[in-house]
What does this fold into?
Amino acid sequence: MTTTTTTTALGLVAAGALVALSAAPATAAGSGTATVSVLHAVPGTPVDVYANGEILLDDFEPGTLTDPQQLPAGDYDLAVYPADTESIEGVDPVVSADGVSVPAGANITVAAHLTESGDPTLTPYVNDVSAVPAGEGRLTVRHTAAAPAVDVLADGAVVVSDLSNPDGASLETAAGTVSAAVNLAGTGTTVIGPTDLTVAEGASTIVYAWGSAEADDLDLAVQTISGLGSDPAGVPSGLADGSTGLPVSLGVLSVLAAGGAVAVAVTMVRRRES
Amino acid sequence: MTRAAAAQRRRLVALGACLAVAVGTPLAWSATRPPAAVGEGLAAGLAAGLAAPAAAPPATPLGTSGPQAEGQEPARTLPRLSARPADPASVAARVPAVDPPVEVSVPALGVSAPVDAMGVDADGAMGLPDDVRRTSWYRHGAVPGTGGGTSVIAGHVASAAGRGVLGDLPDLDRGDEVVVRTAAGELLRYRVTTREAVVKEALPVADLFAREGPERLVLVTCGGPYLRELGAHRDNVVVVAEPA
It folds into this structure.
């Protein structure tokens, strides 16, 4: 009986704690911080972006991306309003997303973009910030355009096929410049590019296809996350024996002297015997 | 008897002289070799003055950031973000231009060699030119003259064609000068702080190729015994230099 009561009491305490936690401000729910960037990929309309009712971005222009910012980890209620909205009180946002999870340590890009059918939407993408091998870069492509599935080409070869909004795909490749193009999936119809893209070494280069096929304003937006590099495995700087031994001339001198010593010693022994 | 004894004594002297030359020559040579290492060790050379790694900017503490707006607006809990154009041309234009090294000179050794910008080879190791009269700069690492990070210039110690231009690195001493000429014609001067031979497996690549931290120039070649079964030298000879 006592045991049961205690358990119940503990249960109540636990439940209370849960309530307290969920009642706490959303931004205080996590302990660490996360790295957050925001991309505006809805053509035509400058916007203001709010997080938990607070303005985060003012006059945010289409085709622009914020610098990465450390934000407290937690859940965020995001809402996008037309730029210069005097008060958001009673105004319907263009698009909103509640409870967007921003876990501690994560690197997230929130993209405001169009769905395949052309409606504004918010997609939080989690960026892969794991290390890449020395000499390579990570290339990620994300379909955020009002367009059907596409193929992504690098230097004329399909590297990602049949990518649909809002999906993404990643690959690691030698660092350098590639000529990138986007085709309608399975066709030779190029809808974006070709455009020169730099795949930076030791970095993640994230390319967003955005805009609207119908409005004929498809374009690329580029985000770069650096600091993911690895070190070369070593320095193989010896093609042949380069060890510095005794110079040949000195070696010859030493051997001749040793020979001389032997000859003298032999003579001495012979003399003694005779 | 006396004559025979005198002859024997002469032979004894000759024997002594021959032995002295036979043994003394290599001993004297090795005694005049430069010391195996100079400076306070590779780790110290690469780490000396190393500033604490720049901490990530702290998250804005809740309720303390941002000015209290005049009027009714409460204190901000989130920083304001600013945005930049993300089209490929704008992003490319923001990447700083690199002025790569094109020549390295070591006056104390009387050598000067072209520098090729190279990445990694098929094994993920630093790329090196086959020509032992040329050197390579690791182009994915720090850039000489930019004020930060460790730039690495390496060359083969030798090939079948002959001795490499950096083959005499073991003769470098503390304080010796190293000069790097950049593509833009700038002359960057460095002074040797440490020289050390390191077994290749123990090469501290993370320190050697540090992209951040104080500016260092590192010259690398091979050294130690040539291990015929591996077709490679046992060691890397690493010379660390600081801006003069």
Summary: Residues 1-30 of chain A have pLDDT under 50 and may be disordered.
